[in-house]
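Progress against Task 2.4 (sequence-to-structure conversion) is shown through the following example record, which the project officer requested during the mid-term review.
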Amino acid sequence: MSDSSSASGSRPGVHAPRSAPARPPNRADIEEAARSSIRGRIGKSVLDGLYPVLALAAAILLWAAIVAAFEPPAYMVPTPRRVASEFLNQWERLLTNMATTTRVALLGLFVSTVLGMTLGFAIAWWQPLRRVLLPPLIVTQSIPKIALAPLLVVWFGYGALPKTIVVIMVTIYPIVIACTTGVTGVPQSTMTLARSMGLRSFALFGKILLPASAPHLAGAFRIAASLALIGALIAEYVGSSNGIGVVLLMAIGTQNTALTFAAIVLCGLVGSFIYLGATAVTRLATLGLNPSYLGSHS
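Structure tokens generated for the chain above:
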């Protein structure tokens, strides 16, 4: 008995205390953990949203300090107060034209997303199609879009169509490449296993290829969203009768620097909102398609 006692490391007649069995979590614990997780994510989202606001406030303060320190002529760098005054004087004109440009940018982004995903998955799935379509697509990216915009105006006239086409041309490339990268990055062993389990065509696409491409598409869509407004502005510079790009050209032509700055700041704000909206949409979509995305982006 002494041998067994010494082997167990305890004194004779003294039993080691037994630890109480772990209590399984009940429904209240699970709900509280879920609420805490949601509160944490909401708090993080609020902080993430405050950072751009703080950055904008810091930029305005720096702008005001530079103007106060160096006192440049008002036609070169107006003060923030003068820009704000110009915005208030022409807010209806600015917002109306900004809405026109934003509609074109969002429409072009939507079409390029649908078309780019279709084209990207098709190129990745059929190798002969990849050899035929991918090189011309890469070549078109080296052509300045501002050089093609006048031709589109000649072919399609003034209106939303040529501007939407320019937005599509600017934004479609990253989406196509993201789809191609996501599909071609799936290991062949995974594809073989999926086919052995009976997955074919649409089932294989929905359960394997689309979830694998979701993280790549999320990044590409955010890039495309940030380029959409630029594409719309390029089209408006070349040929348009309305839009914030037209307002910018007229303000520059009349040397109304305050109006130019007001339009630029408004473009920056709208572009930031488009990017934040794209980030929220892609995060929700990616979490639905690929839950492992949460672990690497929490």
